[in-house]
Design goal:
The chain has 2 domains: 185 residues, FAD/NAD(P)-binding domain; 119 residues, FAD/NAD(P)-binding domain. It contains 6 helices and 18 strands. Strands 1, 2, 3, 4, 5, 6 and 16 form a 7-stranded mixed beta sheet that branches.
Length: 333
């Protein structure tokens, strides 16, 4: 088991926020590393296309994240991928992250763990994951060629993934709790023109039913209370995100949904620990805001590390006493 003791900044998460932080931390002449439980790139690597990242009118999510990683590699950011984390201690000094492969010690930590899709929390959802329930249209869409699928949600992710699924499925239902979408107007306009999409308003799924694989969604209209059986081969929930804070909860101040609270510098409630991207309580979760968070946090993490190096230390010095004798004393200088 390897022990890494001399890191200035450890970044937990290799998505756009983490890689951006790595670039800025390395440019700040610090010894920085990025650690991830999977491959670098994070959630955007699964996006078919990204249309709102400046400089790239349209770019594949995987391609964009490859460019992020190439940029980080150029500045010598250390990458530790596929690390199974056993323990995280953000309160001690130095901070300690233990994995199956090694122990990392760092003066400062930037938490960029991201978030995962929120589950519906209904009967049948967990049982049918991989057998009709999926949280990634790009990953699993091709399995639904000429089938009927159902997307749950009304934001950009839900509507964009629903449109992507129409490339394979013969029909795609979109179930939304409200009477109108929350997605951007340009996304809505495209969706309403798609003949394969059908919207089910003011409704929710109460149960997912199947026989080895998903066959039916039990849908309730939340205004009328009417319950119907919707025949479907797959259910794709896109109702929000839950922060990846396992192993961190209780060490940092969080909001009621578990997202980490930060100030404008991305500083958390623990000095020297910063949080960026989808894991923090941000008003917008996009690649561009995640990258921005990473840059801000890294700048202030570098400043924190520099202040630690310049901080006065306790030293043993000789002090002249009125008794005309010299005694050793511990003093702050």
């Amino acid at each position: 088991m390897v022990e890494y003791k001399d890191l200035d900044i450890m970044i937990l998460g290799g998505g756009p926020a983490g890689l951006s932080a790595g670039i800025y931390a390395s440019r700040g002449a610090t010894n920085a590393a990025v650690l991830d439980i999977s491959l670098m790139g994070g959630q955007p690597s699964n996006y078919l296309e990204i249309e709102n990242y400046p400089g790239f009118p349209v770019i594949g999510g995987y391609e964009l994240m490859e460019k992020f990683q190439e940029h980080a590699n150029k500045f010598g950011v250390k990458n530790f991928e596929m690390q199974e984390i056993q323990k995280i201690d953000l309160v001690s000094n130095p901070k300690v992250i233990e994995t199956l492969d090694g122990t990392f010690r760092a003066k400062s930590v930037i938490v960029a763990c991201g978030a995962h899709p929120t589950k519906l929390g209904v009967k049948g959802e967990i049982e049918y994951i991989g057998r009709g329930v999926s949280y990634c249209a790009v990953c699993d869409g091709a399995f639904y060629k000429e089938k009927i699928v159902t997307v749950v949600g009304g934001g950009n992710a839900a509507v964009e993934e629903a449109m992507y699924l129409t490339k394979f499925a013969q029909k795609v239902y979109v179930i939304h709790r409200r009477g109108e979408l929350r997605a951007d107007k340009i996304v809505q306009d495209r969706a309403f023109k798609n003949p394969k999409l059908e919207f089910i308003w003011d409704s929710k799924i109460n149960e997912i039913v199947g026989e080895n694989v998903v066959t039916t969604a039990i849908v309730e209209n939340i205004k009328t209370g009417e319950v119907t059986e919707l025949k479907t081969d797959g259910v794709f929930p896109y109702i929000g995100f839950t922060p990846n804070v396992e192993g961190i909860t209780g060490q940092l101040e969080q909001d009621v949904n578990g997202f980490i609270k930060t100030d404008s510098t991305m500083q958390t409630s623990v000095k020297g620990v910063f949080a960026v991207g989808d894991v923090r309580n941000t008003p917008l979760r996009q690649v561009i805001t995640a990258a921005s968070d990473g840059a801000v946090a890294a700048v202030y993490a570098v400043k924190y590390v520099e202040e630690l190096k310049e901080a006065p230390a306790l030293e043993t010095v000789k002090v002249l006493r009125p008794s005309k004798t010299l005694k050793e004393a511990k003093v702050q200088i």
